[in-house]
Amino acid sequence: MRKLVWFAPLSALALVGCSETQSVDKPLADVQTMLVSLPSDANAMPLATRFPGTSYYVEPATNKVVWHFVREGTGEYARYVAELSEDGPGKTSVSTYLEDGPADSNLSFLDDVAKLAGDASVAAALHGTPVDRSAVQQQIAQQMVNNPLAAQITTIETVADEMDRLAPPDKCKTGTQKEMNSWVCQKHGKNINGDTGVITDAETGEVIGHQ
Fold it and tell me: Is 176 helix (H, G, I), strand (E, B) or coil?
C-alpha cells in the first residue's frame, strides 16, 4: 500500500549504517526509470509494510530515488535512498543507504525491515532477476521475533482483527430491508428528542430530521 502521510525535512533523518554501492551496464536515466517503477518480480518493498499501520511511497529526485516509509498516526520513520551517478559510458553506479526518521524511535526494527526489503529490491532490479520473496519474508519474520514489542503489537492487531471477524453482522447495515427500516436501526447513530421529535446526529449534534 502506498500513501503520502507526512514529509520530514532531510535534516530530521540520520544515516543508518554504511552505504552499499554496485554498478550496472545501463545509462543513468534508464536505471532511475527502472527503480522508480520497480519490475513487479523484483519489488519486495510491500513486504516491509506488513506491520500494522505502515505504508510507503516512492519519490524520484535528481540522480536519486527515495522510498519513504511511514506509519499511520506517527509519520515517517525511515527513508531508503538510492543515489545514482555515471560510471563511464552507458554505465551507472548505484549507492543505497537507509536514513532513520523521527517517528517510532522505539520501533527501530522497522528500519531494519525497510532496509531488508530495499536491498533485495534494488539488487534484483539491477541484476534483472526475480527477488527471493520467501527469503525476504523469513528475514523480516526473524526481525519481528527478535523484537518483543513487535511481536506484542502484531499479536494485539491479530486478535483485534479476529474479534472483528467473529463479531455478529450489523443488521442495520447488512440486514433485510425490514431490519434496516426498524425503529432501532433508524435511531442508530441518532438522538431523538422525545418532546420535540427533533432528530440529531449523535456525533455532530446536527439536526437531520423530525419524527
Answer: coil
The residue ranges of every structural domain in the chain are 10-158, 171-210
Nearest partner of 186 among 136, 196, 197, judged by Cα: 197
Instruction: State the CB neighbour count (10 A cutoff) for residue 165.
Output: 7
**Closest listed residue to residue 83, CA positions, set 17, 20, 130, 2:** 20
| Residues 83, 66 contacting (CB under 8 angstroms) | no
Angle between helices 133-146 and 148-166 (to 10 degrees): 100
pLDDT in tens, 78-93: 999 999 999 888 999 9
Instruction: State the CATH class of domain 10-158.
Output: alpha beta
Q: At residue 191, what is the residue type?
A: N
CA distances from 206 to 96, 191, 195, 209 (A): 53, 10, 17, 9
173-188: b (≥16 Cβ within 10 Å) or e: eeeeeeeeeeeebeee
Predicted local confidence at residue 149, as pLDDT = 67
Query: What digits encode the pLDDT tens for the residues 93-134?
Result: 999 999 988 776 677 888 999 999 999 999 999 999 999 999
Rg from Cα positions in the chain: 24
- 83-92, 112-121, 135-144, 193-202: the lowest-pLDDT one: 193-202
The CA dihedral of 80, 1, 75, 150, to the nearest 10 degrees, is -80
The burial of 57, by beta-carbon neighbours within 10 Å (0-12 exposed, 13-18 middle, 19 or more buried), is given as middle
